[in-house]
Structure formats: structure tokens, C-alpha cells
Amino acid sequence: MELGMIGLGRMGANMAERLVKGGHKVSGFDPNADARKAAEADGIAPATSLEALVGALSSPRVVWLMVPAGKITDDTVDALLPLLDEGDTVIDGGNSNYKDSLRRAQLYADHGLGYIDCGTSGGVWGLKEGYSMMIGGDEKAVEALRPIFETLAPAKDQGWGRVGPVGSGHYTKMVHNGIEYGMMQAYAEGFSILRHKQDFGLDLHQVGEIWRYGSVVRSWLLDLTTDALGKNPNMDGIAPYVVDSGEGRWTVDAALELNVPAPVITLSLMERFRSRDDDSFADKLLSSMRNEFGGHAIKKE
């Protein structure tokens, strides 16, 4: 098939390259000239503008977005709208909020254009291993693009599927990332407990390697964690500061809207917030309160 890829960063460029290796014709646009040049070396036809990208594609066109969620996606969707013709389809493969995807899909439907939301997981390993894709959209429209999804997936019949109508792909990916927050936090806490039991002198990399095989906690995430511990056992040079990209917050919001208890995901998100407060006013106030009601000692700075 023929496809235009917008966004040639780590994910977009690797996905485009995997499609080219799978026999598809891919044109790509990125505002960064170096990204376009690198993509060209991997067999992707570079376009210097959105207009040039759309012009290079045959009708009905298929355009895949791999750009940051939020304003950049909105701006790209709006810029594409007057360039596309009825019957063309846009696939948003980024981490957009599903509510934004519903809004954009309605806008495109009003103009006779298709819009598919595809929650995509796989990271930097996707080029080799394939991508997990949770797809939301019209059933016939998704089926028409089956060759693209089969090429990007780990196998033709594994790791991808239409999960429901438009919006459901990004909703499913949102919850996927919320689960990821909880799993990451559990691994981090567990290895921290092991590390603090200093009288045993545990080798955390060795423990991780043992758990990777036969254990009920084995996973690809554990594989990556163990690899990190092998490279840097003490996490030297890494600040205890953890960012979040939004999906964890959205998952907690969804749980609240649905009255669904989600304590693990919620607390894992709160822990990320806490990691960024290296001068906690709340902890200082707690210490002061203990001093006020019980005369407990305060540790001075």
C-alpha cells in the first residue's frame, strides 16, 4: 500500500522504515530537515511540506500521524483538512486523549474524510519486534488498511486489532499506559526494598535475571528493568525525578468518571508527582505539626 507518515521522530521513522521493509511505499514529512534526510536513507521518500506530502500520494490517500499529543496534533489535523479529498483517511497513531480523537473524527466525518485512532505501543524496539496497536474506527475502513497494520504488528494475526468505534483505540491505549504506571512502580519499589536489605548484599541484576525465567512476574518490562540494572546497578547520575506524559492522569480521570476504584494506578501517578518535589512543604509542615502537638524533635536543614 501507499502511505504518508507525518512525524519522523523515533517512533514515526521506525514505523515508516518497517513499512518500507514490508513492501509498502512510504512518503514522509517532518519539519526537521535532518529527520527527513535520515528517513530518506531508509527508503522513505521525503516531503518538505504537508502540501508536498499530500501531493505525492495517490487517492484515496492514507496519512499516518506520529506527532506529540495536544496542540501539535490539533494543528496538523487542521492543516491537513483543506488538503485532503473525500475518501481520504487519517490515522492518529500518537497518544492523543480519546476525547480529542472523537472531536477530530467528527470534524473529518463532516467533510467526508475518514479518521482512525490507533493507540501504538512498542517504543524504540518496535522496528525489530513490531508494534502493538489498539485501533478505533469504522470497521470497513480499518479492514481496508489491514496490510498496513499486519506489517507493523509483531505478526499478521498478533498484537493488533480493531477494538471498537473511533475513540476506543486511544481509550484502550490510555488504560494500557495507566497499567504500565502501576507495573513500573511495583518493580521500582520491589527492587528498592531488595537494595535496602544491605546485610544480604543482593545483586539486583542477578535477581532480575532469575525472575525473567519461569517467574510469575516475568515480563518485557522486567527484561528492560534488568537490562538497566546490569548497565547501571546503582542508578548513578540519574536524578530521582519521574515525568508523566499524560495518559496516567487521563486513566485516573476516567476511573473517577466511572466510579471505578483504581488505587494502584492512582498512587503510581501520585508518586511521580512526589518525585519532583525536592523541597516538600507538606513534609516540613507534617514535621512542624508533630512538634506542635507532641513536642517531637524537628530535623533542621
TrEMBL record:
The keyword Oxidoreductase applies. Residues 169-297 form the 6-phosphogluconate dehydrogenase C-terminal domain. Pfam families: 6PGD, NAD_binding_2. Keywords: Gluconate utilization, Oxidoreductase. It comes from the Bacteria. It is an enzyme of class 1 (oxidoreductase). One of its GO terms (molecular function) is oxidoreductase activity. The keyword Oxidoreductase applies. Pathway: Carbohydrate degradation; pentose phosphate pathway. Its EC number is 1.1.1.343. Belongs to the 6-phosphogluconate dehydrogenase family. This is Phosphogluconate dehydrogenase (NAD(+)-dependent, decarboxylating). It comes from Rhodanobacter terrae. The lineage of its organism: Bacteria, Pseudomonadati, Pseudomonadota, Gammaproteobacteria, Lysobacterales.
